[in-house]
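User: Run a structure prediction on this.
Assistant: Running it now.
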Amino acid sequence: MEDREIKMLPACPVETTLTLISDKWKVLILRDLMTGTKRFGELKKSIGHVSQKVLTTQLRQMEASGLLSRKVYAEVPPRVEYTLTELGCSLKPVMDAMWEWGAGYQKRQKAEGLVLTDY
């Protein structure tokens, strides 16, 4: 039997979800991996202003939580690919809801003239 760390989870399901994806970078990693397997460099480029150290930490935490899998190829230079697990893919409805809500919010803010620039 595999040694697995026993974790305490919050009683509230919303809080449990937030413990897994509450970091800004984790949500963006999920967004990018929803479309399929990505290499580290592809994720870093897509996400933007995240340091290599922080991205590595976030990916390792997500792997430990079972949200993604990491495949290392014995090549030079080293190649590492990340793929959402079935558990990670099960967050798609959550991500879709966040997308819809965010799009509606942007539309309202633009209509009210409260948005100056897109970035």
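The CA atoms of residues 7 and 115 lie 42 Å apart.
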